[in-house]
Request: fold
Amino acid sequence: MKKKVMIGMSGGVDSSVAAYLLKEQGYDVIGVTMKLWQDDDDFEFDNEGGCCSLSAVEDARRVANKIGIPFYVLNFKDVFREKVIDYFIEEYLEGNTPNPCIACNKHIKFDEFYNMARKIGCDYVATGHYAKIEKDEDTGRYLLKKSVTDKKDQTYALYNLTQDRLEHTLLPIGEYEKDRVREIAKEQGLLVYNKPDSQEICFVKDNDYVNYVKNHTDQSINPGDFVDTKGNVLGKHQGIIHYTIGQRKGLGITFGKPMFVVDIDAKRNRVVLGDNDDLFKKELIAKDVNWISVDGIDEPMKVQAKIRYSAKPSNAVVSMLEDGNIKIVFEQGQRAITSGQSVVMYDGEKVVGGGIIK
Reply:
């Protein structure tokens, strides 16, 4: 019997080609678009290239019809609101800078979506992420490895995949360059072949996260003090949700020289400003750690680690702490290490694991 796979289809070129490739490889493919955040009155909000708009659903439906697979729209709104949107808002109110895509992958695509697929008898789930999954026959562990193109590699957003999820997940385009993916879509008559990639947070219109947080919380956003690294008051800020580590523009205050946000103290409602040099740090603590290529560590381990999606991995040493968190010490200072973002560790092409910067 054919192996059955449920693929998340965003209406974009990557997941569309992934679905086509799976069909060509002989799988019994079911296409699904997840309705995640829209209310009935804002379902028309069309973030072009986004994964959740009404046009995205129709694009996915047309692709499914073209390649000859069944297609469904499933409602995950309640769990998405709890695990992604509420988390996003709470993190900003606490002075952190969350990554909602990582939270969505962890709790929605590879938890709720995965569980539903398994319940209806699917052998696998699949997505259009640029990454590869391989089994290490020597250790028996499943590995998450970088895609063939560093420019599009998305392993950073997938570090929460567990061994069970990796065993039952397919990533069909991890072996392809982006240009080739678009060529395949065009060759197969998929009209999404030239659709732009999504660049914004899907549920935040115009990428205006400050107004989104303001409009979705009862908590007051109070002004507070700008202070320097010694605690001297420099002026007033508009509320901590307006700022993130490394920010220079939009401070609403001038000093005659460039000043950057180097820390956010939510408890005292303070935003700390400093020079560019003050942004560089060599150490961080991370929580909620997930290990992939190893089953935890007893001794310090050399890795390459990166603190944001667009960064290049840098040499570092990771150690376990008694509370289950990890400490990472870099050889070179890293600019704008930001609480709430994720740090992901690599051993060459393999993802060692990752966690949320604390």
